[in-house]
Specification:
CATH topology of the largest domain: TIM Barrel
Number of strands: 17
Number of domains: 3
Order of helices and strands: EHHEEEHEHEHEHHEHHEHHEEEEEEEEH
Helix content: 25-40%
Strand order of the largest sheet: 7-6-5-2-1-9-8
Radius of gyration: 27 Å
Shape: globular
CATH class of the largest domain: Alpha Beta
Mean pLDDT: 92
Bound molecules: calcium ion
Number of helices: 12
CATH superfamily of the largest domain: Glycosidases
Length: 492
């Protein structure tokens, strides 16, 4: 019987590797971090022993999430590539204070979340994975049920000033008099307490707008005397420190990326302003979702857009522009709150969108690999009708970020780059070479974004072509040899 020779497909070899940047690994700075921000009560419920009064059907009640739950899900956060975890306030809160804003005791852990021992373990587990931990701390208000409210010796600890409070959880809360030296002393000692007891790496001061910039500065300086690399951020612009949530920028990012066809010019304008306002504008915290806001996913759905496409564009900007990107938990699903920010369901770890999570992993790993994305200067090369190209350079490393937010294919003709280079796409794997006229023509399909590494033109990849050619030749030789041998066997 004649044996058939099967034609085998030569497996296509995708030799995929990110090109190595020219910059040596340096000591980590806060601006190199990528932050995953979670609400403790709504993340993961691992212990039923602290579920007293928990009611998942009541949006205002505790839903059972706890510190052990975060420890159990560190893999999830690590797989997405985040280097820092930010926790909603963990301090003891009043009934229905699931969000952590109604602090009854600044120096104990909310009993629904676990113990101080649990928190210490969480920080240790995170550190083992080379991740840092940031605590949110409400600094300008307390719970109406805080013992100080009824304490006659502490009447000066509160102020009667009734500023317009934006945060819906703080509207009814009494305002602390943070100009009072006793209150200041208490808060500084509280910072020391958490650093000493848990090993935490950073605080984000919530409600910072209610506190004088002088005290925020003092607070920030105080913690750095305790630990040099400690980082303090504020949830509002404060002239006192560089680390703060850039609300104006965040609003702009949400507005620009929620639907296609919108220009990207204002994003760069905000950067130009920030550069003048802050000594290190790379320490701003920027996000697309945060507690209290309607989820970005819902904004895109309202515009009849594909949320995944919109998230991919927005996140590419967020993770490659100056500042520390913060992803609010559930964005990776992506969660739609139906337009009601008070709807905060438990995190669903099984529902994640594969494509979106891959984009997040790609972006976090690029920030690890290319310091130009976290430390480089930021220059606009092209910004016209929805296509923007930004350049980031750090030492010998240059990357370009291209975002086409328009509804048609667009091309940027770049003439002010070094000669004889190539632009290697890190997301879509394309290569762009300089034309004979000296132009780099960067074409982007509608609603796509990519990051390009500028590197010397390598010509055709002869090593790869040679390798594939060699494998093919060997294959043909082997098949011929086998068929000759078979024929001989048959003839015998
Ligand atoms: Ca629990
Ligand atoms: Ca409580």
């Amino acid at each position: 019987m004649r044996k058939s020779v099967f034609l085998l497909m030569v497996p296509l070899l995708f030799l995929y590797a990110l090109p190595v940047g020219a910059v040596e690994k340096e000591e980590r700075k806060w601006q190199d971090e990528s932050i995953y921000y979670l609400m403790v009560d709504r993340f993961m419920n691992s212990s039923v022993h602290n579920d007293d009064g928990v009611d998942p059907n009541n949006p205002d009640a505790y839903h059972g999430g706890d510190i052990q739950g975060i420890i159990d899900q560190l893999d999830h956060i690590e797989e997405l590539g985040f280097s820092t975890i930010e926790l909603s306030p963990i301090m003891a809160n009043s009934e229905q204070g699931y969000h952590g804003y109604w602090i009854e005791d600044f120096r104990s852990v909310e009993e629904h979340f676990g113990s101080l021992e649990d928190v210490k373990r969480l920080v240790e587990e995170a550190h083992k994975r080379d991740m840092k931990v940031m605590f949110d701390m409400v600094i300008g208000h307390t719970s109406p049920e805080h013992a100080w409210v009824e304490d006659e010796t502490k009447t000066q600890w509160y102020t009667d000033e009734t500023e317009e409070i934006q945060n819906r959880w703080l509207k009814e809360a009494p305002a602390l008099n943070t100009d009072n030296p006793e209150v200041q002393q208490y808060l500084l000692e509280t910072a020391k307490f958490w650093i000493d007891e848990t090993g935490v790496d950073a605080f984000k001061l919530v409600d910072a707008a209610a506190v004088s910039p002088d005290f925020i500065k003092e607070f920030s300086e105080h913690v750095t005397t305790l630990r040099e690399d400690f980082f303090v951020a504020a949830d509002a612009a404060s002239p006192a420190i560089d680390g703060r949530v850039d609300v104006a920028l965040n609003d702009q990012i949400r507005k620009v990326f929620k639907t296609s066809g919108q220009p990207l010019n204002e994003l760069y304008d905000i950067w130009t302003e920030n550069k003048q306002l802050y000594s290190n504008p790379n320490q701003i915290l920027h996000n697309m979702d945060s507690p209290g806001n309607v989820r970005f996913t819902h904004l895109t759905v309202q515009e009849n857009k594909n949320p995944i496409t919109r998230w991919e564009l927005g996140l590419t900007y967020l993770f490659t522009s100056p500042g520390i990107p913060v992803l609010y938990f559930g964005s990776e699903v992506p969660l739609d709150d139906g337009g009601d920010p008070s709807s905060i369901p438990m995190m669903n770890f099984k529902a994640g969108d594969e494509q979106l999570q891959q984009r997040i992993e790609k972006l976090t790993s690029m920030r690890e690999q290319f310091p130009a994305l976290t430390r480089g200067d930021f220059e606009e090369l092209h910004n016209d009708k929805g296509l923007a190209v930004f350049k980031r350079t750090y030492k010998d490393q240059t990357l370009l970020i291209a975002i086409n937010n328009s509804e048609e294919t667009k091309t940027a003709e770049l003439t002010n780059l070094k000669d004889d280079q190539q632009l290697t796409g890190l997301i879509q794997d394309g290569i762009i070479r300089q034309s004979d006229e000296g132009i780099y023509r960067l074409g982007m399909e509608r609603e796509t974004a990519d990051v390009f590494l500028l590197e010397p033109d390598r010509g055709y990849n002869w090593l790869f072509i040679g390798f594939v050619g060699g494998v093919l030749t060997l294959f043909i030789v082997a098949v011929t040899a086998i068929s000759i041998k078979n024929r001989k066997t048959q003839n015998v």
